[in-house]
Amino acid sequence: MNIVYMLFSEKLGKFYIGFTENLNERLLFHQNAENRKFTHNANDWTVFLTIECISKSQGLEIEKHIKSMKSQVYIRNLKLYPEMIEKLQQKYSDC
Predict the structure, then answer these.
(1) Is the model's pTM score more than 0.85?
(2) Could you give the CA distance from residue 71 to residue 8 in angstroms, rounded to a whole number?
(3) 2 has which bridge partners?
(4) I need a surface site. Which of 40, 49, 60, 61 has the fewest CB within 10 A?
């Protein structure tokens, strides 16, 4: 399964955006203090939102798009308005 995921830290008030083919394994990676770089700054990361993708290339493009927005409001709106996710999936369906 190809998944774009967004984690949120209440402590930092920040989001982390990533892509994985195995969400459970990736979450364990983020919880391991020896491995993590950005996420080591907090220990309260929770899954805010996940987006299922049809391929790895689609997932990487959606991840890149969300990161390029550089906006917490955009990320929060993705959760509030699922049609935004559908449009992203359609936009990058040819990847």
Answers:
(1) yes
(2) 13
(3) 53
(4) 40
